[in-house]
Write a structure and sequence with these properties.
Elements (H helix, E strand, L loop, with lengths): L2 E6 L5 H11 L6 E8 L5 H8 L4 E3 L8 H14 L4 E4 L9 H6 L3 E5 L11 H8 L3 E8 L9 E8 L6 H24 L3 E4 L2 E4 L2
Parallel strand pairs: 1-2, 1-4, 2-3, 4-5
Antiparallel strand pairs: 5-6, 6-7, 8-9
This protein binds glycinamide ribonucleotide.
């Protein structure tokens, strides 16, 4: 039976696209994207999913009394879709512990810095402002903290003197599009063993 992946996205969805393309090319095995959820109506990620006939859901934060209520609704939708793996792809909300009752060690995130440096919503700008010479991206399991979960894969890119937030982010995005599908495939193939904070990969 195929593993069912749900993607949560708030933005352009280029990572979602990379995942869908990797599925098409057979680089993520025995899996399908069954649902895309966004907290932003205008997120282009929803459009990308619609084009592929993937069910989409937009949830408006204002309609929920608290973050927990919002997440309870998200979890309910994920369960209805029989989701095996939740993939955060540019999802700009902090998820609450409500998630982990149902999806412990089954939520992945991608972050545009070499964690634990520069967590949060402005990873690229913060790294550039700090003056780092190397940055990159991190795929990690999501836990209760902000970008603190066990690291699954990480890769670096150089930072150039004339970089802007946009040029650096674009270089990182290109890397993300390779790293996220690779990490997802490792997860669906059951090749990751969590030992405390450390992810051991059995290729
Ligand atoms: C990605 O670069 C991702 O790492 C980042 O948002 C971008 C989404 O791009 N996520 C975060 O900053 C999370 N803190 P996309 O919508 O084109 O996939």
């Amino acid at each position: 039976m195929k593993k069912k992946i749900a993607v949560l996205a708030s933005g352009s969805g280029s990572n979602l696209q990379a995942i869908l393309d990797a599925l098409d090319r057979g680089e993520i095995l025995d899996s399908e994207v069954v649902l895309v959820i966004s907290d932003r109506k205008e997120a282009y990620a929803l459009e990308r999913a619609k084009r592929r006939n993937i069910p989409i859901k937009y949830l408006r934060a204002k309609d929920y009394a608290s973050r927990e209520e919002f997440d309870r609704k998200v979890v309910c939708l994920l369960e209805e879709a029989q989701t095996d793996l939740v993939v955060l792809a540019g999802y700009m909300r902090i998820i609450t512990p409500v998630f982990f009752l149902s999806f412990k060690q089954r939520v992945l995130n991608i972050h545009p810095s070499l964690l634990p440096a520069f967590p949060g919503g402005h990873g690229v700008a913060d790294a550039l402002a700090y003056g780092v010479k190397v940055s990159g991206c991190t795929v990690h399991f999501v836990d209760e903290g902000m970008d603190t979960g066990p690291i699954l894969l990480q890769e670096a890119v150089p930072v150039y003197d004339d970089d802007t937030v946009e040029t650096l982010h674009e270089r990182i995005r290109q890397l993300e599009h390779k790293l996220y599908p690779k990490a997802i495939n490792l997860w669906v193939q059951g090749k990751i063993k969590l030992m405390g904070r450390r992810c051991v990969i059995n290729e």
